[in-house]
């Protein structure tokens, strides 16, 4: 019995010695790693890093303090008074030269090298009225269906926003701006042959 207790104690002391040697080895490795990093980064670099971080915080602090104040709420209340339906604000539509939009409609036969795209951009971009839908669509809504081309969305949007109730003619009072450039129709002309990368 006595011998058994002694052997247990000796095994416990061996385990304890083994654990403490592991801890001391780990501590030594961590200290060694720290000294290696410390030797790789000179103290002057650490000082400059701290100074840089401090200066960035200081600059951010002064930028936040010197930002212009918010506009007075009375201005936005006046705009809502113009049209109470335009709670989100007004849109100003830029008047671009015809080469960026309406000229594509006027020269619709040149948009595609194989066929005329004039039908696709007709009717304000909606295209021709859809026919042959009597068995698919109820009769009372058939007149509101069109064969709309997927690249005509810019034309449709432009025509709609020109008559929108939240369109405003004064850019100073606008919260949103629309630039009516028909990029989809424009790029279609250069996707095919006989054009260089510069043209595209």
From TrEMBL:
<dbReference type="GO" id="GO:0009969">
    <property type="term" value="P:xyloglucan biosynthetic process"/>
</dbReference>
<dbReference type="GO" id="GO:0008378">
    <property type="term" value="F:galactosyltransferase activity"/>
</dbReference>
<keyword id="KW-0333">Golgi apparatus</keyword>
<keyword id="KW-0808">Transferase</keyword>
<comment type="similarity">
    <text>Belongs to the glycosyltransferase 47 family.</text>
</comment>
<protein>
    <submittedName>
        <fullName>Putative ovule protein</fullName>
    </submittedName>
</protein>
<dbReference type="InterPro" id="IPR040911">
    <property type="entry name" value="Exostosin_GT47"/>
</dbReference>
<feature type="region of interest" description="Disordered">
    <location>
        <begin position="1"/>
        <end position="22"/>
    </location>
</feature>
<feature type="domain" description="Exostosin GT47">
    <location>
        <begin position="86"/>
        <end position="194"/>
    </location>
</feature>
<keyword id="KW-0812">Transmembrane</keyword>
<feature type="transmembrane region" description="Helical">
    <location>
        <begin position="46"/>
        <end position="64"/>
    </location>
</feature>
<keyword id="KW-0735">Signal-anchor</keyword>
<dbReference type="Pfam" id="PF03016">
    <property type="entry name" value="Exostosin_GT47"/>
</dbReference>
<dbReference type="GO" id="GO:0000139">
    <property type="term" value="C:Golgi membrane"/>
</dbReference>
<dbReference type="InterPro" id="IPR004263">
    <property type="entry name" value="Exostosin"/>
</dbReference>
<keyword id="KW-0328">Glycosyltransferase</keyword>
<keyword id="KW-0472">Membrane</keyword>
<keyword id="KW-1133">Transmembrane helix</keyword>
């Amino acid at each position: 019995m006595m011998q058994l207790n002694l052997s247990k104690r000796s095994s416990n002391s061996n385990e304890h010695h083994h654990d403490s040697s592991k801890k001391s080895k780990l501590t030594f490795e961590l200290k060694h790693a720290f000294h290696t990093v410390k030797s790789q980064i000179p103290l002057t670099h650490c000082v400059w890093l701290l100074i840089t971080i401090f200066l960035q915080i200081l600059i951010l602090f002064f930028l936040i303090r010197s930002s212009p104040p918010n506009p007075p709420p009375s201005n936005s209340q006046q705009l809502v008074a113009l049209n109470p339906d335009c709670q989100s604000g007004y849109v100003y539509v830029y008047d671009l030269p015809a080469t960026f939009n309406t000229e594509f409609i006027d020269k619709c036969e040149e948009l595609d090298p194989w066929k005329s795209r004039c039908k696709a951009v007709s009717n304000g971009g909606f295209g021709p009225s859809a026919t042959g839908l009597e068995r698919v669509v109820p009769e009372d809504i058939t007149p509101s269906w069109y064969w709309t081309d997927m690249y005509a969305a810019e034309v449709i949007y432009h025509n709609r926003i020109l008559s929108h109730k939240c369109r405003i003619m004064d850019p100073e009072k606008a919260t949103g701006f629309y630039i009516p450039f028909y990029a989809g129709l424009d790029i279609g002309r250069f996707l095919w042959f006989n054009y260089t990368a510069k043209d595209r």
